[in-house]
Amino acid sequence: MRKAHDPNFLKNDQYKNASNLNARIYLHAQFSTNKYGWPRFVFDFFAPLPADARILEVGCGPGTLWVQNEDRIPSGWDIILTDFSDGMLKDAQENLKAMQRPFKYQIANAMELPFEDATFDAVIANHMLYHVPDRPKALSEFRRILKPGGWLFAATNGDKHLSEIEQMLFQLDPDNPNNVSKMRQNAVDFGFETGQTQLAAFFSDVQLHRYVDALEVTQAAPLINYLGSMTSKSLKSKQVRGLTEHITQSLIRDGSIHITKETGLFVARRE
User: Fold this and answer.
1) Residue 2 predicted with pLDDT over 50
2) Which residues pair with 257 in a beta bridge?
């Protein structure tokens, strides 16, 4: 099993808490060229939801979607946040506690959701479906718990997303086979080119909305931290020093490092 699909690796290593994800979020927050942030972009598509909507986020991470949209959340929404990682869910609770909203939290597996049929107006799955070993089972679960006419919002990436990061990652950790085409494999599993067909088997009117963006990185340390968050072993200091020097020299020469982003949101409905 690929590590991207291995629940033990994901739960106990990559996403045991929000530290790895926070390193990635920080890079995007600091150096994205699109200043209308990704969480705001996603929230725009929630406009059709009723004022009393019941909403489930599957794989909520540290709760960034809600933190960045605190001023836009209708008071009547009933929001349940789930993640398969207890550590990640605790980080979400910590990040959201100052909002003093009645968020509900629950450990849950996307392939076996502990909720009754037809009870949600919306399911949100932000950049997580490519990690699910059995996507048809998860999508079937999403459909089961949605009310007729309910919405699915599923974020993912395209084939070229962070391709420059992938090259750096290989340079940093060349002997790790899981680093080869890591970003691209996610897009193959569930991305711009493959997600439409998978979703259409369970939902109607599947639409992809692309978020136009890129990274222009002007500091070495956040990029190195991002790369470190993507590896599954302790990196040798020699490798880190070598790549840090390479990145620093590139920044001195060019002023910034361009990194391609291909991110978007599938919006679909249950008939």
Assistant:
1) no
2) 217
* Cα–Cα distance measured from residue 179 to residue 233, given in angstroms and rounded to the nearest whole number: 11
Q: Where are the beta strands (DSSP E) in 59-203?
A: 78-83, 104-107, 120-126, 146-157
- Torsion, Cα of 125, 169, 213, 42 (10° steps): 10
Residue 102 CB neighbour total at 10 angstroms:
9
Where do we find the tokens 């968050």? 229
Instruction: Assign domain 3-161+178-214+262-269 to a CATH class.
Output: alpha beta
Question: What ranges do the domains of the chain cover?
Answer: 3-161+178-214+262-269
pLDDT digits (tens, 9 = 90+) for 156-215: 999 999 999 888 887 776 666 555 456 678 888 999 999 999 999 999 999 999 999 999
Tokens coding 198: 């998978």
Phi then psi dihedrals of residue 241, to 5 deg: -60, -40
CB 59 within 8 A of CB 110: yes
